Amino acid sequence: MNLLITGFEPFDSETVNSGYEAIKLLPDKILDYNIIKLELPVIFEDSIDILIKAIENFNPSIVLCIGQAGGQANIIPERVAINIDDARIPDNKGMQPVDVPIFKDGENAYFSKLPIKKIVENLKSENIPADISNSAGTYVCNHIMYGLLYFINKNKEYNSIIGGFIHVPYLETQVVNKPNTPSMTTEEICRALKISIETIIKEPVKNIDTKKKSYFFDFSV
C-alpha cells in the first residue's frame, strides 16, 4: 500500500520549506505503507495538477499534504478547506488571485478525512505541541487541501482515499533573524509527521456528511 506525502518548495523569500525538509527525513516505509514523497510548487495553477497526476500514478490509499505555517508554534491538522483563493502575497509564479473560486462546481468547503483529534491527542502524548485549526487560510496551502478533497469527492474510483492537510512551524534555522518567532528542529517535525502517519494508518476515520446540511460561507467580508 502507498501513502503519498507532499510538501512545498520554499516561498516568500525563504530558502527552505520546513514541511518538505522534514518529509525528506521520513523513512521509506511506515508500518505496511510505502512512503512516497513529493515536492509541490507554490503555484496556484500548477500545484493541484501535479498532485492529481501523482495520485493517478501511485494510487495511494492515503494522501497527506504538509505546509509551512510561519509564526505558529504547534503541529496543526487542518479541519476544513474553503473554495476560495485570496492571496496575501504572489505565488512563486507571480500570480496573486483575489476572491477567486478554486472550482466553480465545488462545494463551499470540504472537511478533512484525517482523524485530526486523534492525531493531536497522540502528538501531545509524546510532548509535541499540537492543535486543530479551523482555517487553512486562502493561500496555496488551502488551495491544495481543497483541490485534494475536491478530487476525492468528485471521482468515485478515488472516494476511499484518506486525505487531509497538516501545517508545521518554521525550522530553527529560519528564525535566526526573526526574534521571538517559534520554531522546531527538522527532526522534531519529522517525528511529529511519523506519529501523525501512524495515527492515520491505525485509526478509523469519521467523515462529516456535508450532504445532509447546507453550508454557506460569505467570502465578501
Give a quick set of tags describing it.
Peptidase_C15, thiol protease, Aminopeptidase, two-stranded antiparallel sheet, disordered C terminus, hydrolase, 6-stranded mixed beta sheet, PGP-I_bact-type
Tell me the layout of helices and strands.
Layout: E1 2-8, H1 18-23, E2 29-30, E3 33-40, H2 44-58, E4 62-68, E5 76-77, E6 80-82, E7 109-111, H3 116-125, H4 140-154, E8 162-168, E9 170-171, E10 183-184, H5 186-202
Parallel strand pairs: 1-3, 1-4, 4-8, 9-10
Antiparallel strand pairs: 2-3, 5-8, 6-7
Helix pairs in contact: 2-4, 3-5
Strand content: 15-25%
Enter the CATH topology name.
Aminopeptidase
> What class, by secondary structure content?
alpha/beta
Order of helices and strands: EHEEHEEEEHHEEEH
Helix content: 25-40%
Give, in spatial order, the strands making up the sheet with the most strands: 2-3-1-4-8-5
Pfam family, one: Peptidase_C15
Organism: Anaerosphaera aminiphila DSM 21120
Main location: cytoplasm
Enzyme class: hydrolase
Task: Give structural notes.
Keywords: Cytoplasm, Hydrolase, Protease, Thiol protease. Belongs to the peptidase C15 family. Removes 5-oxoproline from various penultimate amino acid residues except L-proline. Its EC number is 3.4.19.3. Homotetramer. The protein has a single domain, classed as Peptidase C15, pyroglutamyl peptidase I-like (Aminopeptidase), CATH 3.40.630.20. The longest helix is centred in the last third of the chain and has 17 residues, at 186-202. It has helices at residues 18-23, 44-58, 116-125, 140-154, 186-202; strands at 2-8, 29-30, 33-40, 62-68, 76-77, 80-82, 109-111, 162-168, 170-171, 183-184. The protein is globular. The chain has five helices and ten strands, in the order E-H-E-E-H-E-E-E-E-H-H-E-E-E-H. A hairpin with a 2-residue loop joins strand 2 (29-30) and strand 3 (33-40). The strands form three sheets. It has a six-stranded mixed β-sheet. It has 221 residues and is of the alpha/beta class. Helix 2 (44-58) packs across helix 4.
